């Protein structure tokens, strides 16, 4: 499997993990306190350089703010990287 499709699959799984907070009300928002920095760190590992750092920061903020968990940050970063920002 090409590296870019592996990143897409990983991103889809990580976005799905971010949705877990909707399953268990109350507990889910507490889990975001832990998941927010982890998701930011994972984003910087998947996407190197300045774009990865910016996406990592966005991921932390998106996961930490209540109600914004529906944004598929990892998938959007993949689309940005491999569809819109082709080099």
- Report how far apart the termini are: 20 Å
Structural class: mainly alpha
Give the biggest sheet. Answer: none
Give the total of domains.
1
Continuous helix count: 4
Mean pLDDT, rounded to whole units?
87
Proportion of residues in helical segments: over 70%
The total strand number stands at: 0
User: What value does the Rg take, in angstroms?
Assistant: 13 Å
Uncertain ranges? none
Shape estimate: globular
Q: What is the H-and-E element order?
A: HHHH
Determine the strand fraction and express it as a percent band.
under 5%
Describe the model:
- The chain crosses the membrane at residues 12-36, 64-84.
- Keywords: Membrane, Transmembrane, Transmembrane helix.
- The structure is a single chain.
- The protein has one domain.
- Helix 1 (3-18) packs antiparallel against helix 4 and helix 2 runs antiparallel to helix 3 (49-64).
- The longest helix has 20 residues, at 27-46.
- The radius of gyration is 13 Å and the shape is globular.
- The protein has helices at 3-18, 27-46, 49-64, 73-84.
- The protein is 74% helix and 0% strand.
- The chain has 87 residues and is mainly alpha-helical.
Topology:
Layout: H1 3-18, H2 27-46, H3 49-64, H4 73-84
Which properties best describe this structure?
mainly alpha, 4 helices, 0% strand, globular
